[in-house]
């Protein structure tokens, strides 16, 4: 970027779950570049979290790492408590932590189901609850909203996905969690939105974009002609958390290079 980014999140604190790699890392970096102090949550990848923090600090931002398993309520409470202790407030939650455990329909074990739902959906729900409790406690401060929540969904909150039913179910559920919470909390000036990324090059889908043949196939369902980069999502996340998006709630921002545009209908149908 040629000029210093506008610090429209100055004097605000963000928690980003799953911020040691991929989309969470990009969101943490973008939020910090806009002035937010960031709690960089990770579950096992301490080195990844350290990378996130190094990049934030190199750009003059503020961040600290916190290890917590987002499927565990006690860990989530500890993450929020540590953030309030370190920075005083929580103004933004990016409920990003998520994973895939793929398998054919009848091969998926109950553990595959529980783990994916436990992090992607139940974990997001518990983080959102904790965020709302904290927003209420601290009251109106440096934003037009009492608090902002952004859930990391997926194009698979609407596109069914064979071989990934646990993941698609978690994201479909997350979408209705986001909208129902947005409806319930709007009168309190709490904004709840989601981002639905398509194929963005991260560790979660490296087996696809890292393989020449599979990447060629993937491009067929991406009208824009390239795979996404994590910063395509990070910048949008920072904007959604800002007062520029103050009238936006209950919305899912799709960032997918056209994947949701039924590309298989190009020259067909
Ligand atoms: C998944 C990726 C996949 C993309 C598009 C995402 O939600 O995590 O693995 O490449 O959707 O299908």
What does this protein look like?
With 269 residues, the protein is α/β, with parallel strands linked by helices. It has one domain: NAD(P)-binding Rossmann-like Domain (Rossmann fold, 3-Layer(aba) Sandwich). Helix content is 42%, strand content 14%. A seven-stranded parallel β-sheet has the order 3-2-1-4-5-6-7, sandwiched between helices. Strand 2 (37-42), helix 2 (46-58) and strand 3 form a beta-alpha-beta unit. The longest helix has 29 residues, at 110-138. The protein is globular and about 50 Å long. It starts with 12 loop residues before the first strand and ends in a 14-residue tail after the last strand. The model has no long low-confidence stretch (mean pLDDT 97). It binds beta-D-glucopyranose. Residues 100, 154-156, 198-199, 204-205, 208 line the site of beta-D-glucopyranose (BGC). Beta-D-glucopyranose binds next to loops.
List the helices and strands and how they pair.
Blueprint: E1 13-16, H1 22-33, E2 37-42, H2 46-58, E3 62-67, H3 73-87, E4 92-95, H4 110-138, E5 147-152, H5 165-185, E6 190-197, H6 206-209, H7 212-219, H8 230-240, E7 252-255
Parallel strand pairs: 1-2, 1-4, 2-3, 4-5, 5-6, 6-7
Ligand roster: beta-D-glucopyranose
Q: Radius of gyration in whole Å, from Cα?
A: 18 Å
Task: Based on the coordinates given, report the CATH architecture.
Answer: 3-Layer(aba) Sandwich
Helical proportion, percent range: 40-55%
CATH topology: Rossmann fold
Given the structure, what is the number of helices? 8
Query: In whole angstroms, how far apart are the ends?
Result: 42 Å
Question: What is the 3D shape?
Answer: globular
């Amino acid at each position: 970027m040629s000029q210093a980014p506008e610090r429209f999140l100055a004097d605000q604190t963000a928690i980003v779950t799953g911020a040691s790699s991929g989309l969470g890392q990009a969101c943490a970096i973008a939020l910090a570049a806009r002035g937010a102090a960031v709690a960089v949550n990770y579950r096992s990848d301490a080195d990844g979290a350290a990378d996130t923090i190094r990049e934030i600090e190199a750009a003059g931002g503020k961040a600290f790492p916190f290890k917590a398993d987002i499927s565990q309520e006690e860990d989530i409470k500890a993450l929020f408590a540590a953030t309030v202790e370190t920075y005083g407030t929580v103004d933004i939650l990016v409920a990003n932590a998520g994973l895939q455990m793929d398998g054919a329909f009848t091969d998926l074990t109950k553990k595959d189901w529980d783990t994916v739902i436990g992090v992607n959906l139940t974990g997001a729900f518990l983080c959102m609850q904790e965020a709302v409790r904290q927003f209420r406690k601290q009251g109106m401060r440096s934003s037009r909203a009492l608090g902002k929540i952004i859930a990391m969904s997926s194009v698979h909150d609407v596109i069914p996905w064979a071989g990934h039913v646990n993941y698609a179910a978690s994201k479909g559920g997350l979408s209705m969690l986001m909208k129902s919470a947005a409806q319930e909390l709007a009168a309190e000036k709490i904004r709840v939105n989601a981002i639905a990324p398509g194929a963005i090059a991260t560790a979660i889908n490296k087996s696809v974009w890292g393989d020449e043949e599979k990447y060629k196939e993937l491009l067929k369902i991406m009208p824009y002609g390239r795979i996404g980069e994590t910063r395509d999502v990070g910048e949008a996340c920072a904007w959604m958390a800002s007062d520029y998006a103050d009238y936006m709630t209950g919305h899912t921002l799709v960032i997918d290079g056209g994947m949701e545009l039924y590309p298989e209908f190009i020259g067909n149908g």
